[in-house]
Amino acid sequence: TENLLVLGIESSCDETGVALVETRGPGVPVLCAHALHSQIEMHQAYGGVVPELASRDHIRRVLPLTQKVLGEAGRALTEVDVVAYTRGPGLAGALLVGAGVACALGAALGKPVLGVHHLEGHLLSPFLSLDPPQFPFVALLVSGGHTQLMRVDGVGHYELLGESIDDAAGEAFDKSAKLMGLGYPGGPALSKLAEHGDAAAFKLPRPLLHSGNLDFSFAGLKTAVLVQAKKLGDQLEARKADLAASTQAAIVEVLVKKSLAALRQTGLKRLVVAGGVGANRSLRLQLDAACFAVGVRVHYPELHLCTDNGAMIALAAAMRLQAGQQTASEVYAFDVKPR
Ligand code: KG4
Ligand code: ZN
């Protein structure tokens, strides 16, 4: 099969990501170059992502980033065979920037354009690591918007085993962090603070831990953290690290136990972790230990590819084309799917 050069554009939320990935026969595609611009500083003043500002900043960044990536890879725009973009889920206005630019490039180059599901990007991102997984595997997808366990038998063959019925794991981190006054995004800040805290200091709920299915619920945890914070009153400042550690322990325990249950249920011996919360150190340590004990191998994306990026979008498109899940003539479409 011919090698395809895929340009990927991610603009679903607060990171503009652009990347070039090339297929090499039937093997795992190769990352040629990628560039990222994070809007975190811009949104920090507002305590969260402001959608209108996000869209405008994507417009400012996407073409310079594209040029940077082409330059770093030493490739010309005209060498690109397929343009891929994040079709959703995400913020509608932000998604439209990536979709608009991708479709304009495709039209100008006379090349097909492929809309990629953001979560499929996360899901496949561990294939860009030095130790890529093999199908089939169980995937734990933990991002700011989703918490899902999936059985993955191949590219495009995904079976949902369970998911959060309310807040996502990343939301639980972010919202708890916010009410502890840790700013945005709260996940990394909370986990950093937790390193100096006692995880057994506060008893917090482990929702649905014994539900007998693979669903999650994190909304109650945030409320319990709020109640605890109020109870502490002016002692909160002194006990913040303990509360952070206890909160992280509650989230991590549920994620680990349910992942193991999914592995037992499917009989699979491989776990892939993806999405922003997959960067969490405590989650990685505890998953590694628990999986080692039952002879399961765990694969993670490289740390810098855990959170949103263009590489995973280019990769997902490349792997779909390789798998024959999509062919060039089918793929031209200009739309976004925010939900
Ligand atoms: O996958 P992602 O970049 O964006 C979405 O698609 O949602 O994930 C972002 C989420 C945020 O909730 C952020 O707080 C969380 O991932 N996150 C972390 C860590 N790094 C990012 N949560 C806990 N510990 C971390 N180290
Ligand atoms: Zn994401």
UniProtKB/TrEMBL annotation:
GO terms for molecular function: iron ion binding; tRNA N(6)-L-threonylcarbamoyladenine synthase activity. Keywords: Acyltransferase, Cytoplasm, Iron, Metal-binding, Transferase, tRNA processing. Its main location: cytoplasm. Residues 32-314 form the Gcp-like domain. GO terms for biological process: tRNA threonylcarbamoyladenosine modification. GO terms for cellular component: cytoplasm. It catalyses: L-threonylcarbamoyladenylate + adenosine(37) in tRNA = N(6)-L-threonylcarbamoyladenosine(37) in tRNA + AMP + H(+). Binds 1 Fe(2+) ion per subunit. Substrate binds at L141, V142, S143, G144, G145, D174, G187, N280. Fe cation binds at H118, H122, D308. It is found in: Cytoplasm. The keyword DNA damage does not apply. Its EC number is 2.3.1.234. SUPFAM superfamilies: Actin-like ATPase domain. Its cofactor is Fe(2+). Gene3D superfamilies: 3.30.420.40. Required for the formation of a threonylcarbamoyl group on adenosine at position 37 (t(6)A37) in tRNAs that read codons beginning with adenine. Is involved in the transfer of the threonylcarbamoyl moiety of threonylcarbamoyl-AMP (TC-AMP) to the N6 group of A37, together with TsaE and TsaB. TsaD likely plays a direct catalytic role in this reaction. PANTHER family: TRNA N6-ADENOSINE THREONYLCARBAMOYLTRANSFERASE, TRNA N6-ADENOSINE THREONYLCARBAMOYLTRANSFERASE, MITOCHONDRIAL. Belongs to the KAE1 / TsaD family. HAMAP family: TsaD. NCBIfam families: gcp_kae1, T6A_TsaD_YgjD. This is tRNA N6-adenosine threonylcarbamoyltransferase. It comes from Rhodoferax sediminis.
